[in-house]
Amino acid sequence: MALPSNPLLRSLGGYPLAAFQDMAREMRAQRAVLHDFSIGDPVEPTPPFIRRALVDGIPETSQYPTAAGVAELRAAIATWVRRRFGVEVDPDREVLPTAGSKEAVFHLPLALVDPHGPRRSVIWGDPGYQVYERGQLFAGGTSDPVALTHGRGWRLELDALDADRLQAASIVWTNYPHNPTGATADATYYDRALQVAREHEIVLCSDECYVDIHPDGAEPPSLLQSCGDDRSGVLVAFSLSKRSGMTGYRCGALVGDADLIADQRLLRPNIGTASPEPMQHAAIAAWGDDRHAADRRAIFNEKRAVMLEFLQRVGITISGSDATFYVWFAAPGGDDAAYAEALLRHRIIASPGRAFGPAGAGWLRLALVPSVDGCRDAAEVWEKAITDGSLPGHR
Ligand SMILES: Cc1ncc(COP(=O)(O)O)c(C=O)c1O
After folding, report:
1. Mean pLDDT across the chain
2. 354 near 330, Cβ under 8 Å?
C-alpha cells in the first residue's frame, strides 16, 4: 500500500556514514571495553540538588505545562543571564523556557519562514549541527550551508557572503562554542555578525548551548552582550543539558527580541512542546546555581587536558578545540572515515568530521564524554595502536 509520506523525511533520514554507525552499534552491544567519544551525552551524575528539585516539583495533580513556562523559571533564566553576561532581560517578554534547545532550534523557523516568500533560506556553518537545516526544510524553507575552514577558525563570517545570498535568508544560525570543532567566537565577531544581519534584515540566531563549558579564565561571550539594549532581530538558545548534566531533563531557553519571543509563544501551543513542570522546577534550581557548573567544567577541563596532551604528543594536528566539550583534530593521512574505522577496531569511537557536513571531511571530533580515567585509558590504547602501526597516516 502506497501510504502518504513526506519525501523530505527519507531524504534527510540517512546518516552519511551508515556502515560506520552499524559497526559502532554492534561494538556497543558487545559491551566490551569501549572508548566512546561519539555521542555528546556525558556520564557524570546530575547533581543531587537538581534531582531533589525535580522530585519536590511533582504536584499532586498533574496539569498541562504552558508555552510560557512557570514564572519562576523565566525569572531564574533572566537572573542567570544577568549573572553570566551582565545583560538585563525582561523575564516575561524576552525569555522563553524550552524543552531543551534541540526542539527550539527545530521548531523556531515555523514562526519565521514564509514558505512562499522570497526569503526562505537558513544560513549555517558546515560542518555544523544539522538541526538548523532540518528545521528550516520541514518549515518549507531551503538550506544554505557555508563551508567553514580551519584557516578562518571555523567561524561563519557573514560579511564574506554575497548580498544576494544574504537577501535570500530568513535566518542565520551561529553556534559558538561550536559543535563539532569546539571553536569559539569573540565579542567583535558577534558585533560584525549583528551588523550584517541587521543590514539585511535577517533574524540572527545564536546557539550557545555550550557557553558554560570552557577552560578556566576563557568564558565565551554571548551575542546578547553585543546587543546592548537593542535585541531586535536576535534570538539566543541556551541549554542545561551540558551545563548541568541534564540531557535527559530537556530544559533550555530562548532569549532575545520580545516580538520574536511573542511569535514563538503563539506558535508553540500548536505543537505542544514544553518541559513538564517538575522538570521546570529542576531547571529553576540548576539555573540558580553556578557552583555545580564550575565543578562540571573542572572535570571537562581535565578530560580536555588529557586528550590535548595526548594528541599533541603523538603529532596529531588540533584545530578549534578552544572550548571544552569537543576536541577537533586532523585525520592523520587525511581520510577521516578511514581513520575512524581504524580507531573503531581498537574500540575507540570518534566521529568522522564529514558526518557534520562535507566541509568536515579530513577532520574528526571527540566528544569528551568518557570519564577522566576513561580518557586516559583511551589515550593509552590509541598510542599503542599508533606504535603497532595499525592506524593509517602515522609515520
Ligand atoms: C550545537 C547544538 N545545539 C543544540 C543541541 C541540543 O541540545 P539540547 O536539546 O540537549 O539542549 C546540541 C546537542 O548536542 C548541539 O550540539
Report:
1. 95
2. no
**Is residue 309 packed enough to be buried (19+ CB in 10 Å), middle (13-18) or exposed (0-12)?**
exposed
Helix axes 71-85, 277-287, angle to 10 degrees: 20
- Cα–Cα distances (Å) from 373 to 40, 249, 306, 307, 378, in that order, read 17, 26, 9, 11, 9
- For atom 12 of ligand 1, the residue with the nearest CA is 102
Ligand 1 centroid to Cα of residue 101, in Å, is: 6
| Closest by CA position to 20, among listed 362, 348, 328, 352 | 352
Closest among 188, 260, 269 to 221, alpha carbons compared:
188
Signed CA dihedral, 378, 383, 386, 392: sign only = positive
Listing DSSP states for 243-266 in one string gives TTT-TTT--EEEEE-HHHHHHHHH
Backbone angle region of 328, left / alpha / beta, with phi > 0 → left and psi within -120 to 50 → alpha: beta
Residue 341 clears pLDDT 60, i.e. is over it: yes
Question: Which phi and psi angles does 177 have, rounded to 5°?
Answer: -55, 145
Q: What is the pLDDT of residue 17?
A: 61
Strands 234-239 and 252-256: antiparallel
How far apart are the CA of 328 and the centre of ligand 1, in A?
17
Mutational test site, ligand 1, from 124, 132, 209, 351, max ligand atoms within 8 Å of CB? 209
CB of 102 closer than 6 A to ligand 1?
yes
Looking from the CA of residue 103, the nearest atom of ligand 1 is 9
Strand order in the sheet with 169-174: 95-98, 252-256, 234-239, 203-207, 169-174, 121-126, 142-147
Are 278 and 57 within 8 A, CB to CB? yes
Task: Give the C-alpha distances (Å, rounded to integers) separating 350 from 34, 210, 252, 329, 369.
Answer: 11, 19, 27, 10, 11
Nearest Cα neighbor of 355 from 345, 370, 340, 368 is 340
- Rg of the chain (C-alpha set): 21
Count Cβ atoms below 10 Å from residue 94 Cβ, excluding itself: 26
Confidence of residue 23 (pLDDT cuts 50, 70, 90): confident
* 239 touches 233 (CB < 8 A): no
Q: Report pLDDT digits (tens) over 35-77.
A: 999 887 888 999 999 999 999 999 999 999 999 999 999 999 9
Bond from prior residue into 180 cis (ω within 30 degrees of 0): yes
One-letter amino acid for residue 339 of the chain: Y
